[in-house]
User: Fold this.
Amino acid sequence: MNSVQMKVAESIAALGPQVHDKIVGVMVDREAERRSSAMVRVIDKLEGFEKDLLKLKPDGATYDEKGGKITEYYSKQRTDERKKLGDKIAKWTAGINKALESNDYQKVYEFASGNEKPDRDEDSGEDAKATT
Assistant:
């Protein structure tokens, strides 16, 4: 075996730590991509919810004699829509914050995949939708 072949063989034999580091780097990069992709999808959807909320205009208003608006009011249906959207925005924002603050991406993955679990009534353990 010539000196070049011996050098190559020695380098290959010493590759263990390099291979280990490279595998770790690839796996970390994959997870970072997975998390950032999910987060971007959720933020995009959240922005859509916020725009939808702004589109829900009052059903009517009252005015003073000078034409200034005194109050606005919403129908029961529109109020329910606003509440539902507001609750969803709060829930998704909390999921994003939890991911960023405590590194728990479970809710972000659920939201991003469209497999959002129904709200749970914390006292009874039943679905909140089933009790309303």
